[in-house]
Design brief:
This protein has 2 domains: 215 residues, P-loop containing nucleotide triphosphate hydrolases (Rossmann fold), CATH 3.40.50.300; 46 residues, no CATH class. It contains 13 helices and 7 strands. Helix 7 runs parallel beside helix 13. 32% of the residues are buried.
Length: 281
């Protein structure tokens, strides 16, 4: 179970995991089954539907739904996982939390999930703030799963040292750690490479034709085609600025969350430290 975090590299990790000959990853990505959220969860489809996402002869099955680490805004994921798949192994990818939060906002703007300016978004989108509260998220998972079955990896390490990080992941999962793939050099859903669609672009993004392409095309082909189709509908990205007091308050909260994560894991997690305020943005 790749449980998070949103905009932390889970789409790339999902791709790399799915290349391993011993691992089957649910397609399309993000079944979003276990959490409780009437708008985003597939829980009501039932356990038979969830099982149907994993029809394979491979030894291991997995999925990646970053919404599972947005507690308490999106609750019950850990409880339900423990009830249904108590022996699961969890992978939690974490990224510098303030940058991650800004990237989450840009993702929601692109998808038409919000039209708010960034300061107002932080007041409204509790799930996005929860997604950066890494210590709180891990502490919640530890209520149901022992630490030895939760692997915390840094998004920056996945990006910079992909092969070594994937070997660590494969060892954690008990599969051949020596497996490698040329696709380990491929990055998915990189924010700076994505366009911001106009209203017409969002209509295209949410169209039935786009849904059919996502379903029937190989994922690596779909993502490139989607971005190409959206290029004529580009608009300027929104501002990511915060008032200085709000910025300092946000950074202070995230610093305490990182400290808690380090306390719970014993890991250094050096890449999570937020740059000084005068270099932010």
């Amino acid at each position: 179970m790749v449980v998070g975090t949103t905009k932390g590299g889970t789409t790339s990790l999902d791709l790399y995991l799915g290349r391993h000959p011993e691992i089957f990853m649910a397609r399309p990505k993000e079944p979003r089954f276990f959490h409780a959220d009437a708008r985003t969860s597939c829980w009501d489809r039932g356990l038979d539907w969830y099982r149907s996402q994993f029809i394979t002869n491979k030894r291991l099955c997995g999925e990646a739904s970053p919404v599972y680490s947005q507690w308490p805004a999106r609750p019950l994921a850990a409880e339900r996982m423990h009830e249904i798949i108590p022996q699961a192994r969890l992978i939690y990818v974490v990224r510098e939390p303030v940058a991650r939060l800004r990237s989450h906002y840009l993702m929601d703007v692109r998808a038409g999930e919000t039209e708010a300016a960034f300061p107002e978004y932080l007041e409204e989108a509790h799930y996005a703030l929860d997604a950066s509260r890494y210590g709180t998220q891990l502490r919640n998972f530890l209520r149901f799963f022992p630490l030895e079955r939760i692997l915390v990896i840094e998004s920056a390490e996945l990006l910079r040292h992909t092969h070594a990080t994937m070997a660590e992941v494969f060892r954690f999962l008990g599969v051949d750690p020596g497996f490698s793939s040329p696709l380990f050099y491929h990055r998915r859903n990189v924010s700076k490479s994505q366009t911001f669609p106009s209203a017409r672009g969002r209509a295209l993004l949410n169209s039935r034709a786009m849904a059919l392409m996502r379903k029937h095309l190989k994922s690596q082909i779909f993502y490139h085609l989607r971005n190409a189709l959206l290029r004529p509908f580009r608009v300027a990205p929104p501002s990511l600025a915060l008032p200085e007091a709000a910025e300092r308050k946000l950074r202070a909260e995230m610093k305490s969350e990182i400290a808690l994560l380090r306390e719970l894991t014993g890991l250094a997690l050096a890449s999570l430290d937020t740059p000084p305020l005068d270099t932010a943005g």
